[in-house]
Amino acid sequence: MNNLISNRFQSGKCMCRRLFATLTVRSPVSPLGTSVALHRDAVTDQTHFPMNSSIFLSLLNHFRLRRTTHQRHFSSRAGGAMNVFDRSMKRKQKKWAALLQDSEKYEYLKEEVGSRVADRVYDIARTFPLALDVGSSRSYIAEHMSKEVVEKFFLTDISENSLKHRKETEIPTHCILADEEFLPFKENTFDLVVSSLSLHWINDLPGALRQIHQVLKPDGVFIGAMVGGETLYELRCSLQLAELEREGGFAPHVSPYTAVTDLGNLLGQAGFTMLTVDIDDIQVHYPGILDVMHDLQGMGESNCAWNRKSMLHRDTMLAAAAIYQEMYGNEDGSVPATFEILYMIGWKPHESQAKPARRGSANVSFGDLGRINKPSSTDSTKEQ
């Protein structure tokens, strides 16, 4: 796509010209636990936004220090269900994204995260006769699995179109149209439950984790990935600063996400044991802020919070683009968007699992640890 878009703010305070080049994505091959950069192809981006306001500069410094201001997190208390997201809107967004003719070009992030979840399944040296993918979308996990590891897969999603356009896999699959918050399965059914980039749109996350725990067999494992609280901080700060400058206040444009500090507590409250939580930062480079928002829409990941703002003013959008470039822009004219991905592993308890030693049963004092490598007096005599 080679479109020349020229926008000019008539007051002379903001001028923005962009030349978009072919929009393709190169998927990285990178070890787990590292920061990854996915790049959109070449872009020429010329932006001018004079920042001559002392109020604007003070706000700019404030947001550099506190980039996660006004984030709302899920409650980690038992029974702390919240009604944050419009689930019917999320269903419509996913349906629209699945019907796009060029939907494949928006799958780079979900493909990458799905492969990393699959890698964590391969790390467990066992075969799973029956597995469930919660919020499978187009089965980004199953396509990376083999029938030697998973013998049968059940795929659930709220979007029928996503399930119809699922990716091919050698594993026998069964598709079920179901909400992640209401799993239609009996207790102790599955040996493995996985989920990739779906749980961050759930209102009752503690309840969803308890349901996942319930449908697992004893000694079954849950492996999931979801978006964390630091995701898209560049976009959030740029939009808030632009609205403060142009409109005197701001509304939330990026959905609230779960904090990594809460995730372990939520898994523990749901009944999981032997917990593992780790983080990956995936950074994608775009021609500009409009491309960030356009790709989020193509992924079906647009904001669906009830308190979202339905429209952005044109001059606010132009100001946000210039702020984004000024604060976070790269030398080549592109801008980064950071996705914090939280990975979690939890096991349903079973008597065969390793258990912590009884309190007070240790026979070595911590005070003795420092003398382990020191030679004793008898050893010194022998050496002489």
TrEMBL record:
PANTHER family attached here? ARGININE-HYDROXYLASE NDUFAF5, MITOCHONDRIAL (PTHR13090)
Instruction: Specify where the region named Disordered lies, as residue ranges.
Output: 354-384
Q: Where is the composition biased (Polar residues)?
A: 374-384
A GO term from the CC aspect: mitochondrion
Where is this chain primarily localised? mitochondrion
What is this protein's record name? Arginine-hydroxylase NDUFAF5, mitochondrial
Is the keyword Mitochondrion assigned to this protein?
A: yes
Q: Name one GO biological process term.
A: methylation
Keywords on record: Methyltransferase, Mitochondrion, Oxidoreductase, Transferase, Transit peptide
Every Methyltransferase type domain range: 132-223
Per the UniProt record, the source organism is: Megalops atlanticus
Q: Which GO terms describe its molecular function?
A: oxidoreductase activity; S-adenosylmethionine-dependent methyltransferase activity
Similarity comment: family membership: Belongs to the methyltransferase superfamily.
User: Which branch of life, at top level?
Assistant: Eukaryota
Q: Where's it found, cell-wise?
A: Mitochondrion
Annotated SUPFAM superfamilies:
S-adenosyl-L-methionine-dependent methyltransferases (SSF53335)
